[in-house]
Amino acid sequence: MLSNLHFDEQTLSQRLMNHRREFHRYPEAAWREFFTTSRIASHLENLGYSLHFSDEIILRSSIMGRDEVLVAQAQERAISWGADITYLAHMDGITGVGAVLDTGRPGPVIALRFDIDAVEVMESEEDAHRPRFLGFASLAPGVAHACGHDAHASIGLGIAEVLAQNKDQLNGKIKLLFQPAEEGCRAGKAIAESGWLDDVDYFFAAHIGMNVPSGTLVCDPQHFLCSSKFDLHFTGKPAHAGIEPNAGQNALAAACTAVSQMLAIPRHRDGMTRINIGQMHAGDGRNVIPASAVLLGETRGENRALNSYMFQQVENIAEAAAMMHGVKVKLCAQGEAIGLENDLELVELLESVGPESGFTDVLREKDFGASEDAGYLVDRVQSRGGKAIYCLVGSDLTAGHHNGDFDIDESRMLPAVKLLLNAVNALQQPLLRAESASEPSITSN
Ligand SMILES: [Zn+2]
């Protein structure tokens, strides 16, 4: 299928590795990807893409789980690392970049999404950890590319390069979305609601690893969990605990009431649900009626209705507990994931181009069992008549995702690039697809 797209595999492989190792050295957590975005934007602009930043690709009012103090610090650090201040100005505080290649010829609008954020985990300092002994370990203590999004960003740049070099062979429009804040499911909703993907006919996203070995492609992962992450802020009134406790409004008591009731939410007959309150911070001193309390929690459900059921109960309990203790409560959404269902047409397309892209084992289904921010993007595209898919690109790993010892098999980036290029090519050139079914496929040199 790549027969009409020309590129040098060895050069591209080397470039993918170089990109990945640079992103790995400069990891940035959710909403703080200023250096990463700047580097990506610079490559894309050199390749001739038109770039879209900030409010063009993200609806600010739907942003979740963002700490402005940490964001400001990250911006300073990005400058010290050498981020281009022109791009920082375009970002206007919001990371991520969208790139468009418009061929000027009629054809579909195809979007590819690559997440770019790192994880808040300390990278291994063991000598046997490859990024360490090869000299590309994280330069940011406590943050590491421990989910493979450094590879995703690199795959995106690899695809961008081949598409740009072969623009004359392409039709329609290609949109590349380098997404911030996938961890914690904090950006998908805001990107979807910006409308930037509303003209998309076909949407692709992929994740490397995820317990899928090198050489294997999973075209249609199953069972994405819906989840809502939230903070609850209870605000009461302080008072002297001995002289006039009656004058206080006890926020800690309200938070405790809320926790015990939330953990007692009746389970739903229709399927799996979860709730966890993972942190509570409250009070000021032993002899002061506590005027503030914060709870950090999350609900999950095996589908949207079940997660909504859990979250609705949380809202009711928070209001009722606040009322009981005469305090105020404010719920702040920190992240949200909805389910994800692939379109069969694209599942079958990936199955057909998987083998020629370098996958020795092409599976249709595998249990996913986690949450993924792409759900909102997939849903947005599908709700407007487009088709969408999220697949898993296998890679042997040195440790599980979000673990400090995590490292990928870098050789698996090239097959991911070829897979998505083959898929784009097939959708753009349906005739070529039919004709070349029996021909040798790859003509890269
Ligand atoms: Zn991930």
UniProtKB/TrEMBL annotation:
Recorded superkingdom: Bacteria
UniProt keyword annotations, A-Z: Hydrolase, Manganese, Metal-binding
Record's cofactor remark: The Mn(2+) ion enhances activity.
UniProt GO cellular component terms: cytoplasm
SUPFAM superfamilies on file: Bacterial exopeptidase dimerisation domain, Zn-dependent exopeptidases
One Gene Ontology molecular-function label: dipeptidase activity
Domain Peptidase M20 dimerisation: 229-319
Coiled coil (residue ranges): none
Binding positions for Mn(2+) per the UniProt entry: C147, H149, E183, H207, H402
Any single biological process term in GO: folic acid catabolic process
Cofactors demanded by this protein: Mn(2+)
Database matches in Pfam families: M20_dimer, Peptidase_M20
This protein's name: Hydrolase
Organism encoding this protein: Photobacterium gaetbulicola Gung47
